[in-house]
Specification:
Layout: E1 7-11, H1 16-28, E2 33-40, H2 50-56, E3 61-66, H3 68-81, H4 98-112, E4 116-118, H5 127-138, E5 143-145, H6 156-165, E6 179-182, E7 187-190, H7 203-206, E8 221-228, E9 231-235, E10 238-239, H8 242-255, E11 260-266, E12 272-278, H9 280-296, H10 299-317, H11 324-336, E13 342-349, E14 352-359, H12 367-370, H13 382-390, H14 392-404
Parallel strand pairs: 1-2, 1-4, 2-3, 4-5
Antiparallel strand pairs: 6-7, 7-12, 8-9, 8-13, 9-10, 11-12, 13-14
Helix pairs in contact: 1-6, 4-5, 8-9, 10-11
């Protein structure tokens, strides 16, 4: 017998999808109680008026979950320490926000005794997987409703028409209907002209977190970031909380045209998708962290960690945050980050980030050993025996090949 649905927790952003879902759920599930839940991961002005809008359009309650500190400290920074990236480019801005929001939805659903959780993700995207895996991790028996997979609205244009019919207010129109996702880490843009990879993005129209390199200052900006165990803790000598530091880097990075990515990625569900991402502060942090690790990690650890970074990025992209493998990899990353302490000075100039100096109390770089000058620590004559042994397989194969001729 199908479970009766009397109370639904809706992941509510106030965007196009979730704006029409309150009305749609009431029409299609025998007028259930709808509890709208918004997870604040740094959407800023996008959250304004959400409670009023949700209640006005049919929700009985509205929860605003302040997740920003947890997002930065427990999700963003662990990924930074791992150098996690997807397909060499994407810094996972949308991906690592979803598990946290999903957990928040479960918390409210259990508190309210809800029968189901509803999300506004499409059947073509990655976010449906990320939300639902998080829900399964904390409420494995919870009913999940995904209207995009079942309803009669087949496009965003249909949704807009539905909203107009039911007098549901929207912040978008048919001409500016980009699909966006914003949080404290990034802003993504998809849809419309971006769906054709041949079209150059209309940067002057879509950028919100910064400017193009062409419009950046004609003089470089220098900044210094201090890390403790792989975590950024200070900017230009000033200790800052995680949120404050990231917001400051977003500002300076955006002003200098840093962190604009145009990519075609391989979605988890199998298709390729094109999007434009703005990640100014995150791009700066990844570069600084990578530079600091170059002098604080030994060769084998550094090289192995580069392999881990790829896997970690895939895990995050695929929504597998709450899994034993991710937890195990995080433990590895935490251990290898114990010596990632020090300062990195960066030069920002028209979209570029270059090193202007690295220092660490745990540095493994020895100027005496690396110098071309004379030193007492490295006997250059030792290299001859090393090369003979290292190259022995090559020599033996060449000798065997010669005998066959």
């Amino acid at each position: 017998m199908k479970k009766e649905i009397k109370k639904i927790v809706l992941a509510y952003s106030g965007g196009l999808d979730t704006s029409v879902m309150i009305q749609w759920l009431k029409e299609n599930y025998d007028n259930p109680e709808i509890i709208a839940v918004s997870g604040d991961v740094g959407q800023a002005d996008e959250l304004e008026g959400l409670e009023e809008k949700a209640l006005k359009t049919g929700a009985s309650k509205f929860y605003a979950l302040d997740l920003k500190d947890e997002f930065v400290e427990d999700f963003i920074f662990p990924c930074l320490k791992a150098n996690a990236v997807y397909e060499n480019v994407y810094l996972l801005g949308t991906a690592f926000a979803r598990p946290l929001i999903g957990k928040g939805l479960v918390d409210v659903a259990l508190k309210e005794g809800a029968d189901a959780i509803c999300h506004g993700c499409t059947g073509k995207g990655n976010d449906q997987v990320r939300f639902e895996l998080a829900i399964k991790a904390f409420a494995p028996e919870m009913e999940i409703i995904a209207p995009w997979r079942t309803w009669e609205l087949k496009s965003r244009e249909d949704e807009i028409a539905y909203a107009e019919k039911h007098n549901i207010p929207l912040k978008i129109n048919r001409e500016t209907n980009y699909s966006k996702d914003k949080n404290i880490w990034h802003l993504s843009h998809e849809g419309l002209d971006l769906e054709d990879p041949m079209n150059e993005p209309k940067y002057d129209q879509i950028l919100e977190m910064g400017v193009t390199p062409e419009k950046a200052p004609d003089v470089p900006t220098y900044i210094t970031i201090e890390f403790e165990k792989g975590i950024p803790v200070a900017l230009d000598g000033k200790k800052m909380k995680a949120q404050e530091l990231l917001l400051a880097l977003n500002k300076v990075g955006g002003e200098n045209g840093v962190g604009i990515i145009d990519m075609v990625e391989n979605r988890l569900v199998g298709m390729k998708s094109r999007g434009v991402y703005e990640t100014p502060g995150g791009t700066i942090l990844y570069k600084a962290h990578e530079l600091l690790e170059s002098i604080t990690l030994d060769k084998e650890t550094q090289h192995y960690k580069q392999q881990i970074a790829i896997k970690f990025g895939e895990i995050l992209y695929n929504g597998l945050w709450f899994t034993p493998l991710r937890e195990a990899l995080s433990a590895f990353v935490d251990k290898t980050s114990e010596t990632v302490n020090g300062s990195v000075k960066l030069k920002l100039y028209k979209g570029n980030i270059t090193s202007a100096g690295i220092s660490s109390p745990d540095t493994l770089y020895s100027e005496q050993i690396a110098s071309f000058g004379e030193d007492d620590s490295y006997d250059q004559n030792d290299s001859a025996g090393f090369i003979n042994l290292f190259g022995l397989p090559i020599k033996v194969k060449a000798m065997m090949d010669a005998k066959k001729k």
